[in-house]
Amino acid sequence: MSATKSSQLTLNFRAGQPIPGWVREIIDAHLAIEAEDAQSAGSLGFMARALVIATMPYKDPKSDVFKRQNGDFRLRIVAGYEGGIPYGIYPRLLTSWVSTEAVRTRSPVIQLGDCLHTFVRDVMDLRSNGGGPRGSGSRVAEQMKRLFGSLITAHYTGTQQQRGFVLRNVLIADELQLDDAELTGLWTPQHAEEAGRWKSQVRLSNGFFRECLDNPVPIDLRAYKALRGSPLAMDVYTWLTYRMSYTHRRTRPIRWEALMMQFGSDYGTETAQAVRDFRKAFLKALKLVLVVYSQARIEVDDAGVVLLPSRPQSLLPPTQHDLF
Predict the structure, then answer these.
(1) By 3-state DSSP, what share of the chain in percent is helix, strand and coil, each rounded to 5?
(2) Which candidate, 5, 9, 23, places its Cα nearest to that of 229?
(3) Which InterPro entries does UniProt cross-reference here (predicted)?
(4) Which of the residues 74, 160, 163, 180 has the least number of beta carbons within 10 Å of its own beta carbon?
(5) CA–CA separation, 22 vs 223, rounded Å?
């Protein structure tokens, strides 16, 4: 992508208000991605396929059961923690992290490290905004319990070209260890002599661990984290990365109604107005995604979205693109 698209994004925001910091991060991510592939930059990450084809809610559904459908694929999440269903940016960042660590270490036991405050800052790449129940650390801990306590059923019938799969009643994690000290005194710096007294970890269930290893969807973590100002944009990015990996000819139009079933959990019933509202939000998210994934070739009209064969995002050096 040329610098023109970044400039257009900047001008659009200047017309109304100062550019949000996370939009600047998207432009910076674009420049970094253009300069160096993800593997060379140490930012090659992965997402489990089942959570790319259908996605978690963007806002709290205020329910113990959440369902999503994408064609022949159906996702069902049942809350296993009293707080409810995971939603928003934090479960998405957590899922990309555990999927990446599972692929990298080939182990179902994922270590959070000696300090979750450091984890939130360095691994999740989130700025601290204070402690307490509204602080980023507290919100990450809450969403971590929701995510790793959820029961997931993913069912996909597939086609002759693409084998189906079934993940029935899969727990993402068999065990999550968060010491009481983590949840109460975690967000203030620890003394050096206390830093090694506890170590948190999550043990992925065998079903989810195998899904991570057998069907990893490569992503550029620089792009994914830069898009965290919009969970919808995060989902559109991983979906496009996945779809473009096997789009070898012009697709039929993917209708707005179908896209709304996949991405539009916050728009209620499928009324004409709801579809129009979703389309507006989707196009806004897509605009951001195309800054960090400029190789994606897409046509948009009143019927929906058409995907055209596109060069995969520069995740790997040219000689290694066939690894995944």
Answers:
(1) 50, 20, 30
(2) 23
(3) RepA_C (IPR006881)
(4) 160
(5) 11
